[in-house]
Amino acid sequence: MRLNNRRGIILALGTTQTLAWASSYYLPAMLAAPMARDLGVTTPTVFAAFSVALLVSALVGPSAGHAIDRWGGRPVLMVTNLIFAGGLTGLAAAQGPLTLFSAWALLGIGMGSGLYEAAFAALVRLYGKNSRSAISGITLLAGFASTVGWPLSTYMELHWGWRGACLTWAVLHVILALPLNAMLPTPAQVDTPKTTSAARPAPITANASAPDDVPETIWPSILLAVVFAVTWFSSTAMAAHLPAVLMGAGATLAAAVAAGALVGPAQVAARIAEFTLLRRTHPLLSAKLASLGHPVGAVVLLALGAPAASAFVLLHGAGNGILTIAKGTLPLAIFGTGGYGLRQGVLMVPARLAQASAPWLFGICVNRWGAGALWVTAILGLASFTALQLLRLPAGRLSGSAKVAPR
User: Which of 71-85, 153-167, 346-360 shows the lowest mean pLDDT across its residues?
Assistant: First the structure.
């Protein structure tokens, strides 16, 4: 059975992405402490193994993107489900630091070839320049990965232990995600009633150059790499230290936790806006606005203190939600479809490295300056906005690439 309609493909990829994120990126938050106790290591050691996974994912990303350019997303994503299952099974069987780090390294291969960048490349391989709404759709669904993953991991750990939780996630990759990815069509099999031959993406080869009138230069790639690295650093830093930052600004623990819970809804709300209200604007314009969310929120929080905690979280979450989509849509709008997967993998290498270092580096800043550490991420956010400002598109491209295919 093959899915041949756009909505079904978005739903399938959104589901498999939710599972992939919940069972990898969001796994340590709930299982690191019991994992450490059982293995006789410290909790920071478990997070160090997780950082190794992020480093491995950075190395794997370009090769995975290149494979999707050549063969499409279906075979690559199916293999990643088996890799995720193997890594999670290895984690469940870990007996010490060596097997712990080995299992996380294997999970890093899955993360580098099976998270958003791979899904974005798979959609571009199917729909070409008309992929924006599909990219927004899967990020909208997978935006609930922590909302689903954290309670499920906690429930499974309480009832079956952390090893049972890891094994259950592994089984879900095999019995749920693998069949869904197997149902994805190849590019030649995409058949939507409203898609004309002119709108179909041309085959993408490994050596394809950027189409249309956008010159292939290193400068736009550097600017985008800066934007994505800042985005990943700030989002990961906030994921690890947001309650401490809010308490440093004067909020109580209860208030900090309550405000922090708004990150997910803010991200989803922003993605709904991108999917509806902003879908006819160029992604560069929405990315510029989104890049100001964190800096503006940080200034408001530092100026007003605890009463502005929720405002900061909402602005940060909304900006991060749209920038997640921009990671897929900006390279498409600027460079076109040629070699998209490989380019995505290369552009995300600095972002993965920044992500791996964020909890440690920003933790040092929080320990030293408290809420004042937000000046670091605020300045980085302004640097990201500046990089977006320096991006230039040829005349006619600003409005032309904002068009979307019928959903």
Answer: 346-360
Tell me which architecture the domain covering 218-400 has in CATH: Up-down Bundle (1.20)
Plot region of 128 (φ>0 → left; ψ -120 to 50 → alpha; else → beta): left
Tell me the pTM. Answer: 0.79
Instruction: Name the DSSP class of 307.
Output: G
CATH 1.20.1250.20 positions along the chain are: 6-186, 218-400
Specify the CATH superfamily of domain 6-186: MFS general substrate transporter like domains (1.20.1250.20)
Cα 326 from chain centroid (whole Å): 10
pLDDT at residue 404 tops 70 = no
Cα–Cα separations (whole angstroms), residue 45 to 33, 156, 225, 227 = 10, 22, 29, 30
- 248-278 pLDDT tens trace: 999 888 888 788 878 888 888 888 888 787 7
